Amino acid sequence: MSKSTGLNAIEMQCLRQSFGLTVAQVASITNTTEEAVNAWESGETEAPVPVQKKLLEIDDIIEMQVLNTTDGIEELFKKEPKRRLAFVVYPTQAVYNMYNPEFLSSLPLTELYNTAAWRIKKECKLVLEVDVSLVPLDAEAYKAYRADNGLSESRESRAKWAATQL
Amino acid sequence: MSKSTGLNAIEMQCLRQSFGLTVAQVASITNTTEEAVNAWESGETEAPVPVQKKLLEIDDIIEMQVLNTTDGIEELFKKEPKRRLAFVVYPTQAVYNMYNPEFLSSLPLTELYNTAAWRIKKECKLVLEVDVSLVPLDAEAYKAYRADNGLSESRESRAKWAATQL
């Protein structure tokens, strides 16, 4: 998305909703208030340029994540028959903070990661004809699975656990 | 999206949020209750297959709308220099019902049309490098514009009015 063309009220609202975020959540990640967000979305005031940039950057990060992950999945299926895939998501902010901290600076809320995951699911279906299921991490079940299989905590172990949930 | 693979709780929520719809709105377009929608999204019950199909069909309709409109805009700019474009959206359900009735059967809520418009804006920027602005129809201003210019009501007249708002 352009960084030079300003977003109007309806566009600010569409952008927030496309992320699956509430007004309060957008206020929080842009360091402002719910009143301010409501004012942008009703056209009372214009959203400050740095806020617009920040939100458009998040959209870019999500789209990049979608591209990279879809490319990775395409690579994975070059020699294998296509099958269902599990993609781990995080049911609460606390679980997201604990298990996915490397994303906190770019996608600070678990809802933003869910949005990326949903777009990945759509893209994989459309472009690769691969079914991706979003699997919320069940921290207790995952710990038990690791103990049973002698696995340490890692992205790979989470993916293995998630595959057992399909 | 697949019609054979069922959507789980988090996926039902992601799908609703990707449309920019509230729980009440999804209940309304799927002829069910808010309690039922909340139950699908919390994993208490599974969303009925016809409901999943209906919502995935709406997503397909939106994506088709995005493809067709983006193709149309690409065609438009084959011989002209690229410029900013206005895309009319409808600020309330009443205005949507009055001016855009041909979409009511496929995209019954104005928010769904907004979602399509937002995705068109993104796609045009990314693929065509064309800036599209979403312009909410101001029914009074549009009527005055038509009177001033001797135009009858049509999609084309709306587009002409919207272009004056850029």
UniProtKB/TrEMBL annotation, chains A, B:
GO molecular function: DNA binding
InterPro entries: Cro/C1-type_HTH, DUF4447, Lambda_DNA-bd_dom_sf, YdiL_sf
HTH cro/C1-type domain segment(s): 15-67
Identification of the protein by name: DUF4447 family protein
